[in-house]
Design brief:
The protein is mostly helical. It has helices at 3-6, 11-45, 59-71, 74-86, 91-97, 111-125, 140-154, 157-175.
Length: 179
C-alpha cells in the first residue's frame, strides 16, 4: 500500500506506518554508518587500497582505532576518524606516534606542552573527543576503562610517559581559571 493512499485512511494507521518506516530508516542509517566506519578502518589499515593519506600514524594508533571502532557510538567514532585524518597536520601528534621505546622522555620536554595545545584545539573543533559516548550496553565507565586498557597495552613506555605529562598539563590548565 502506498503512503499517499494510506493518508486518506485512518490517521492512526497512517501514523503507525510512518513511525514504522522512520524506525526502519533509522536502523538502515545506523547500519550504513557502521559499514562506513569499517570501510574507513580498512582503508586506514590497508592504505595501498585506498586514497587517503595517513602518514604519521603508527601501528599502535591504528590498533587503538580498531578498539575504538568496537566500543564508541557512531558519532564519537566519526569524531575520532576525523582526528585520524588530521594527524598529519599536527606535528606533535606525528612525533608522538613515532616515539620509540628507547627514546629518552627527558629529551621530549616540550612535546607534552605541544600535545596539550593540540588537544585543546581538537576538543574545541570536536567536543565529542573530550566526552565520547559509547555504543556498549555496559555504559560509559566500561567504555572508558576499555580505552584506558587499550592505551596501556598498545603504546610504549615512552609514549605513556608523554601522555601522563600531557594529562598533568591539561589537568593543571583546567584547574587554573583563564584570565
Amino acid at each position: 500500500m502506498d503512503l499517499a493512499d494510506m493518508q486518506h485512511q485512518e490517521s492512526d494507521e497512517y501514523t503507525d506506518k510512518l513511525r514504522e518506516l522512520d524506525e526502519e530508516a533509522e536502523a538502515a542509517i545506523r547500519r550504513l554508518h557502521a559499514i562506513r566506519a569499517q570501510i574507513s578502518h580498512e582503508l586506514a589499515v590497508h592504505p595501498q587500497h585506498g586514497s587517503r593519506s595517513l602518514d604519521g600514524l603508527g601501528p599502535a594508533d591504528e590498533e587503538f582505532m580498531t578498539v575504538a571502532s568496537r566500543i564508541l557510538s557512531d558519532e564519537s567514532l566519526s569524531a575520532w576518524n576525523t582526528l585520524r585524518e588530521q594527524v598529519p597536520g599536527h606535528q606533535a601528534l606525528v612525533e608522538f606516534s613515532q616515539l620509540t621505546e628507547d627514546a629518552n622522555p627527558d629529551e621530549l620536554t616540550d612535546l607534552p606542552d605541544r600535545l596539550a595545545a593540540v588537544v585543546h584545539q581538537l576538543h574545541a573543533e570536536a567536543p565529542e573527543l573530550a566526552s565520547p559516548t559509547f555504543a556498549s550496553a555496559r555504559g560509559q565507565r566500561f567504555g572508558q576503562q576499555a580505552l584506558q586498557v587499550a592505551v596501556a597495552d598498545l603504546y610504549n613506555l615512552t609514549q605513556l610517559e608523554v601522555l601522563l605529562r600531557t594529562s598533568v598539563i591539561l589537568s593543571d590548565q583546567a584547574a587554573t581559571p583563564e584570565d
